[in-house]
Amino acid sequence: MPLQRTGGGDGEGAAEAVRFDGVRKRYGDNTVLDGLDLTVGRGERVTLIGPSGSGKTTILRLLMTLERVTEGVIHVDGAPYSHMPARPGGELVPASERYLADRRRGIGMVFQQFNLFPHMSVLENVVEAPVHVLREDREEAAARARDLLAMVGLADKVDARPTRLSGGQQQRVAIARALAMRPEILLLDEVTSALDPELVAEVLDVLRDIARDTDVTLLCVTHEMGFARDVSDRILMFDRGRIVESGGAGELLDAPSHERTRAFLRSVR
Fold first, then answer.
1. Which of 166, 97, 188, 169 shows the shortest CA–CA distance to 126?
2. Interval 130-159: pLDDT, tens
3. CATH number assigned to the domain comprising residue 119
4. Which long-range contacts (CB under 8 A, 24 or more apart) does 94-97 make?
5. What is the residue range of 201's domain?
């Protein structure tokens, strides 16, 4: 994971981290994403807001290859991601599982639920994937895991089992676990929605530090507008599978131009 922030952009002119070209996602007759065109620059922080069912989480699930596109193509780091060339220089076809497994290693995700292994210690939870997926040396992975756990304020919990931690502490372990995979792109899906209100602040403070101090590209789905204001280079308002408004954090939150955005912001404040 890069260690110093050099600044984000608006997705225009910067080297691209992610590009959606005409992406549609349907479940039967239900269109969840309707021809999405979106570019996110490297190091950019983009927050997706909007009502439930508007397509925000589907974007993250497509990037994690938990879902497949119905139409269109997703690119990551300038190369096809949802698709691959049938042969060198040939037409694009849906990506194979092997191709996807190789490409998605640079993408990490923190989910609403923590999904920690209850039979493993906190340290083991963070070390497991780098050792088995990235083939890192276990001692080196453990040393880095300790650094990451210290970064999220859990240096004294390395030997604890997840069941002995609060929800906020478990989510901070999940954040450290995602960062242990050295992602260039980090996806956050309503990471505080399963927490008691008094635990939300501790998780958001960790994420603010990551946004401030690292160069990881960030795509975040959240209803925490204060957090969105603090970390976002750009906020996108979604409704019915489409972007209805896009702008800088202050611009969109303080003076939204679209009535749908104004109505949504009234509902979450």
1. 169
2. 999 999 999 999 999 999 999 999 999 999
3. 3.40.50.300
4. 94/68
5. 16-268
